[in-house]
Amino acid sequence: MEKNIRFFSLLLFFMICLLSLASPSLAGTDPGPVVGGGEHAWWFWPVILFFVTFVMGIFAVLGGVGGGVLYVPIISGFFPFHLDFVRGAGLLVALSGALAAGPGLLKSGLASLRLAMPVALIASTCAIAGAVIGLALPTNVIQISLGITILGICVLMLTAKKSTYPYVPKSDRLSSILRIYGVYYEDSTGEDIDWKIHRTPIGLALFIIIGLMAGMFGLGAGWANVPVLNLVMGAPLKISVATSKFLLSITDTSAAWIYLNKGCVIPLLVVPSLVGIMLGSIVGVRLLKVAKPTFIRWMVICILAFAGAKALLKGLGI
Q1: Beta carbons within 8 Å of 184's beta carbon, 6+ residues apart
Q2: Is there a contact between 245 and 102 (Cβ–Cβ < 8 Å)?
Q3: Domain locations in the chain?
């Protein structure tokens, strides 16, 4: 246990040192519309970004959060990149993981296409609207809203509970009409689990808000998808997690096209971010076996709280 704490504390310290280098106020650069001042070579920021996102990818896996949730507040708060470009890259970061995992989740029967389709239709449409709204609003307003949202996610992570097999006494009328139910094989017990959902209208209404926020802030929406699918609609936890991951491949694609069309996706930012996050995720999967979930969860919450406060203060001009 002590070895794990020392290792992850050292990893966190390394990330803080890199963020100190990246922070415009400490690096002596003035952030421009895309990338900060000209004192550094063109490759300086991509290299620092790669190492930061590599560590971020490790913590994203260990903390059970999507890469976009960590990516947008940290990169926008400490790097001299305009927020529009960070949000565009954040959506692609979340999208890459979803596209990699989606086919396997569908093949295994954990991701439910019947559950995903009506949710995806609503969330992806609202994500497009959210992206348009986000690009139209002033940057400081988005920064303040982002900071408040990230701090809200911290509260959600602290208070939210998960139910492996929620009690659903009866399918509601809408889910019955849409035939949203299924069976999946539970490896831990060797049994086939029948599942169904309820409170479908409430759940679909919540995905309007989730889609808007995903497009507006470029966070992805895994942090909100799972609680709604699991706690509100009553889908089993594994079905909720797998379907949420598959959903990101649809909702994030819709919003990402808006940022791409507006010229807010640049290779200088996207390429090192995707490579760093993906390599870090591979390392994180291997470390997951020895990591203490409680310690990592608290560390991720602290990182998010710090990044959220930074975004809020930056938006307020403090």
Answers
A1: 109, 110, 192, 193, 195, 236, 238, 239
A2: yes
A3: 2-316
